[in-house]
Amino acid sequence: MKFLIEKRNYIILLIIILLICFIVFNLGGKKQIYIKSFNYFNKVITVKIYDKVDSNKITKTINDIYKKYESGKGDEDLIAYGKLLYKKSLGYIDITDTSLDYALKHGESLDFKTKINENYDKNNFDLIISSYATSEVIDYFRQNDISSYIINENGNITVGKHYDNGKFRISINKYKGDVLTIVNLEGKSMATVNKTDSINSYMINPKTSSVSDNFDSVTVIANDNLTATMLAQTLFLMNEEEGRGFIKSYDAAALWQKNGDVSYTDSFKKYEAN
Question: What residue ranges define each of the domains in the chain, with the CATH number in brackets?
Answer without folding.
Answer: 31-271 (3.10.520.10)
